[in-house]
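Retro notes - structure team

What went well: the batch runner handled both jobs without manual restarts.
What didn't: labels got mixed up in the shared folder, which is why I'm recording both outputs here explicitly, each with its sequence directly above its tokens.

Job 1
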Amino acid sequence: MDGIRFTLNGQEVTYAGSAADRLLDVLRDVYGCKSVKCGCKEGECGACSVLIDGTLINSCCVAMGAVCGATVTTLEGYRETARFAALEKAFGDTAAVQCGFCIPGMVLASEALLAKNPHPTEEEIREGLSGNLCRCTGYNAIVNAVANAAKEGNGLW
């Protein structure tokens, strides 16, 4: 096999390591995606969240073989978009960031939600963010940020 080919943040890449290697480790150690955090290593905290073909996935639970031919987006790639700018502004305006550890996962969860449902209710926002733990800010400010981004996103989603 010639390696595992996939798209990472808009760039075609080929990973030459084992198909059993964990996506989380490869993203951080090989490709330098430091927004992908190692939290629980069990898929419980969301710190390692990435988008795979637009779906929010915990990268600690994904073997590299599963991303062959897929499009993987981390915050490093997503932050170059207008949608990120709208979420960044909303998170800042509502003071939804403290330590920042959870924010990459929260932002990608917000993107996944808003891409499917551009006008979510509070309950739908809370459900869309579930699986992403925040130990500092709490969830109300983050929920408000997503609601504001949805309202003020000017049709981005």
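Job 2
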Amino acid sequence: MSDIVEKLTSFSKHFNTDLEKCFPFADGAENRVIEAMKYSVMNGGKRLRPYLLCKCAELFDVDYKTAFPAAASLEMLHSYSLIHDDLPAMDNDDLRRGKPTCHKQFDEATAILAGDGLLTYAFEYLSNALVIRPEIRLALIQLLSSAAGAFKGMVSGQTLDIYATSTGNTQKDEEIISRLEEMKTGRLLRYACEAGAVLGKADIEKRNVLISYSRKIGQAFQIADDILDREGDQKLVGKTLHKDDAQSKFTFVSYYGIEPARQKAKQLIEQAIDEISVFGDKAIDLQNLARYIVERQY
């Protein structure tokens, strides 16, 4: 796993240098919200989603410079979701990536505005990315807005995460957990893979392979997160653990149990690795990334 960790670390350093340039400071008191936006988006993180997007684009010979605006806008949108997820009305968390959450570092009102700012800036930044052809930009904007939204997107997933409870019916419960993951975690991971295909003008067959790969790693990623909430080291994970049980959340682990969930994640990863093999040696980093998703400690 050390090879993929080194590659993620190297990518993150390069990506963070470019991402920081996206946040020029304004004059006046409104500077506070930009400080909060920048604090949250630059506050560590694995940069897994941007890396995934760039690696999927690379399958079709799209370079980093061309893929960067799509990757940056995705990370902005992801960071907005984390700010709002941490708010007192949602998960009420004090830590994110080992540092105070945005509403703790600033205040609740500023955090709400910073989340709003990152959400809208993601689309502004992507729409102004002249390095990407206009028709591809439009396709990416449509995909990202759908992935983030309330109609089978991330907002729907967040809603399920708050309100979903067991029905007592095995089949229905499994469907609820799968839908929750698909929308809350899976949609942005799917977007990362699909955006790479869109940037590369991939045919529908290759695009569908990447969508299928994203769905499998998405479920495995969520299972790994659920397990880390139970068994992880808080210093490594960088956020408050044991929240799922404390809040009686409906998760893969609460439904299957830890060991069956762990085995399910491993099976999903092996399937994902097999599917992506159609791209040959170009897919090695994506295969290693899939393994990292279930082996990570944070």
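One thing worth noting from job 2: The chain has a mean pLDDT of 92.
We'll revisit the folder naming next retro.
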